[in-house]
Amino acid sequence: MSELRIAAVVGSLRAESYTRPACRHALSAAAEFESVETDLVDLRSLSLPVYDADADDAGDAEVLRNRIRRADSVILGSPVYHGSYSSALKNALDYCGFDELEATTVGLLCVAGGSFPTTTLDHLRSVGRALNAWVLPHQVAIPRARNCFSDGEITDGDVRERVEILGRRAVEYATIEPDPRTIESTQNVGADG
Question: Could you tell me the CATH number of the domain that includes residue 101?
Fold first, then answer.
């Protein structure tokens, strides 16, 4: 296997986020493969003003785009906010487009304080399809996250296993041959104008 690069985007700005250690753990599982380089793209450490299409190179936008563009697989991690993904992740994804994500393998992970986090994953899957990414079938929802972590480590065995599988799948499917463009991506006029 030639060298692969797996990135995980932490879509939480909280210092004590559960998304961050979950993304780290997925990358640790990916790094167990030979010739795999990982990159934790922590949005807390980047300056990304609210996206303005007239100023799409603001702040650290080019840094973000370069890191995503270089990845063979990208794991998108988000807390659940109001049944969807975070505004921080939405803003970061607005700075990205086909150049960064088309034909890229994308994995999905979310953490929730409550017990029904799956709509967040559905929304992220729709974004991936609109950008013609290849979204992994395996996805990770972590409900009642406060019960699954201690000192930045995943303590729930089932959750840990699902996160590790996500990291491994990000490597195993990093070079999958892309499908023909999705109808969503062909109708995504916002990406070009």
Answer: 3.40.50.360
